[in-house]
């Protein structure tokens, strides 16, 4: 019985400034294997399909259960999480590439700190520093909680930004994830104290107005965040704030 | 308090730059672009298509409509303030938006992404068409504001070239598409239809609007090229226009179609 194998092609680049090349691998098939476990196999036996020795693939991953958000990459051309990309469900050869809109670090590892910068720019937090006891928090109604919970599932993977036609170097668009997080904290009884500041931030260049409503973000999001709803809701809040500003500032 | 800026990145930034919180005025410009597409441009488009529909009642009725519009108070001011300037702004800023988007419909062939791309292409088609349309019909040839009676003939001559007719038909579809999806986008982006269901329902409304406008537009094109008003007179006297849609069919209509 011939051994079943898995063919994988990986776009590699050893440093941010070197030029990319493709390495082909052929691995023994194991039931239930995913893209990350396949790359672990390569690390354990770093030989390409034509028998040349190579280095293990550099990639980000941590939780292996789609909750840390670190393993996003282009799998057969589409942005998704590698740890939940089951090899049996993918067309072969499986083509792996790094996310294309983030500065490359090495191989499949990219620098996604722009999302962190954006979350800071919209103050995506509840401003409580824990230095003294504020007493019990305000009650959150279940209805509000049900609106907020789906937004809280974001794992900062940046898939929504990678697939967005408006997220690129000429627009400097903030991307759907940050808008959704602004909404999450605007709806929090203590977090809403910064709502106005968040809305002002999102009016800046690269803000919510750059969204072209292609709705790719909501299709690609591995955690099914209601991103288009968030963009719509925040879009209204920003507009109302802008009109208020025009008359009262 | 924490007034100190975070240290500026020493080297040039790689990749997409972060949000410029609260800076710049692209918000205002972009929202003006969005709004101008609905009012005044969208409103004018509807007015224009309804006016064109008068052509189905014949050259006299069409001339009467042209005369009525050109009789509005401050009509030249209205024309510039509510049509030409907003149109030019919407078109030029639209090209700027188009140029900065990176369509990726090949990798992500999802319906919203297709519509995103179509909104850009229909916009570009409409822009190219409108430039030649305004030039050829409004600013060159017979001056229609002064000779409303010549309107039907002027359009008929234009549409007598089959390729020009094709240009008009394609542009009609593209423009109605762009407008009706634009209404949908407006509602979605300004937070009027945030919910998925609301957006889907409004999608049907906008699709119906688009089809209706396209049908109205194409029907009026047919008035100029169909057999009903062949060889319309080059100009109508004020008296002929006065009689409006009740006027006898123009002399040219009796001539049997030669081709
Ligand atoms: S709706 Fe489209 S343009 Fe807007 S953030 Fe999502 S993918 Fe980007
Ligand atoms: S919104 Fe979804 S796609 Fe975007 S970063 Fe969060 S989890 Fe990822
Ligand atoms: S490894 Fe954590 S999301 Fe894939």
UniProtKB/TrEMBL annotation, chain A:
Which GO terms are recorded in the biological process aspect for this UniProt protein? respiratory electron transport chain; tricarboxylic acid cycle
The record's keywords, sorted A to Z, are: 2Fe-2S, 4Fe-4S, Iron, Iron-sulfur, Metal-binding, Oxidoreductase
The text of the family note is:
Belongs to the succinate dehydrogenase/fumarate reductase iron-sulfur protein family.
Return the PANTHER family for the record: SUCCINATE DEHYDROGENASE [UBIQUINONE] IRON-SULFUR SUBUNIT, MITOCHONDRIAL (PTHR11921:SF29), SUCCINATE DEHYDROGENASE IRON-SULFUR PROTEIN (PTHR11921)
Q: Which cofactor does it need?
A: [3Fe-4S] cluster; [2Fe-2S] cluster; [4Fe-4S] cluster
> What GO MF annotations does this protein's record show?
2 iron, 2 sulfur cluster binding; 4 iron, 4 sulfur cluster binding; electron transfer activity; metal ion binding; oxidoreductase activity
Protein name according to UniProt: Succinate dehydrogenase subunit B
Pfam families given in the database record: Fer2_3, Fer4_8
- Residue ranges occupied by any Succinate dehydogenase/fumarate reductase N-terminal domain in the UniProt entry: 7-116
Chain spans, region Disordered: 1-22
Upper taxonomic classification of the species? Answer: Bacteria, Pseudomonadati, Acidobacteriota, Terriglobia, Terriglobales
Q: Where is the 4Fe-4S ferredoxin-type domain?
A: 151-224
TrEMBL record, chain B:
The residue ranges crossing the membrane are: 77-98, 118-135, 165-190, 202-225
Q: What is its main location?
A: membrane
| An example Gene Ontology CC term for this record | membrane
* KW Nucleus (keyword) present: no
Q: Which domain of life is it from?
A: Bacteria
Q: Cross-referenced InterPro entries, in alphabetical order?
A: Cytochrome_b-558, SQR/QFR_C/D, Succ_DH_cyt_b558_Firmicute, SuccDH_FuR_B_TM-su
Q: Which UniProt keywords apply?
A: Heme, Iron, Membrane, Metal-binding, Transmembrane, Transmembrane helix
Q: Give the location in the cell.
A: Membrane
GO MF term set: metal ion binding
Name one matching Pfam family: Sdh_cyt
What NCBIfam families does the annotation carry? sdhC_b558_fam
Query: Under which name does UniProt file this protein?
Result: Succinate dehydrogenase subunit C
Origin organism of this chain?
Answer: Acidipila rosea
